[in-house]
């Protein structure tokens, strides 16, 4: 069975927040428990996702399989710290797929939806990606994104090296 991708609604916020918390914790295992808990408590709450979903400048797509949300992508105006970013730029902000389902085409389907929504003539598209997330970097490179910078992503006391990718 194939996942169905559609626009998320406010009613999906709690399920997406839960998936985000789980996926983030499974993917980024190098944080201290205290730093991870504080970050997740601040960033992965239903009200945070509800606000993003209801913001007309942002969009969240969900992938549903067997009645459960198994992935999501968020996109909107670019907030990456790069001197070439302008208010007209768009950014893929998150792309998460439930553990065990990577490689099943769900990430590609979510990426397609987000990029289709973001893509406008002359618009530069941006992505920030963890320097050690090689799978994501390969996926984005296949879609025409190239590394144009880097910055530090803060999680508690940890400062991760994050790459800035751009297309267009």
Number of domains: 1
Number of strands: 7
**Class by alpha and beta content:** alpha+beta
Helix content: 25-40%
Shape descriptor reads globular
Number of helices, where a helix is a run of at least 4 consecutive DSSP H or I residues: 5
Q: Strand order of the main beta sheet, please?
A: 1-2-3-4-5-7-6
> What's the story with the biggest beta sheet?
7 strands, mixed
Question: Which topology does CATH recognise?
Answer: Aminopeptidase
How is this structure best described in words?
This protein is α+β, with helices and mostly antiparallel strands. It has a single domain (4-167), classed as Aminopeptidase, CATH 3.40.630. The protein is 34% helix and 33% strand. It contains five helices and seven strands; from the N terminus they run E-H-H-H-E-E-E-H-E-H-E-E. The protein has helices at residues 13-27, 33-43, 46-54, 106-118, 134-142, and strands at residues 4-7, 59-65, 68-77, 90-97, 125-130, 146-155, 158-167. The chain is globular. The N and C termini lie far apart (34 Å). The model has no long low-confidence stretch (mean pLDDT 93).
């Amino acid at each position: 069975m194939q996942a169905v991708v559609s626009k998320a609604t406010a009613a999906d916020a709690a399920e997406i927040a839960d998936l985000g918390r789980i996926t983030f914790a499974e993917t980024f295992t190098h944080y201290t428990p205290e730093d991870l808990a504080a970050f997740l408590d601040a960033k992965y709450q239903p009200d945070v996702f509800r606000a993003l979903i209801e913001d007309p400048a942002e969009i969240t797509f969900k992938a549903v399989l067997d009645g459960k949300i198994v992935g999501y992508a968020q996109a909107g105006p670019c907030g990456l710290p790069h001197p070439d970013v302008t208010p007209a730029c768009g950014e893929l902000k998150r792309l998460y797929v439930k553990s065990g389902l990577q490689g099943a085409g769900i990430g590609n389907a979510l990426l397609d939806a987000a990029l289709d929504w973001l893509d406008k003539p002359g618009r530069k598209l941006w992505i920030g990606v963890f320097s050690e997330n090689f799978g994501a970097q390969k996926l984005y490179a296949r879609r025409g994104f190239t590394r144009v910078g880097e910055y530090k992503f803060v999680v508690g006391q940890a400062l991760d090296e994050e790459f800035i990718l751009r297309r267009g």
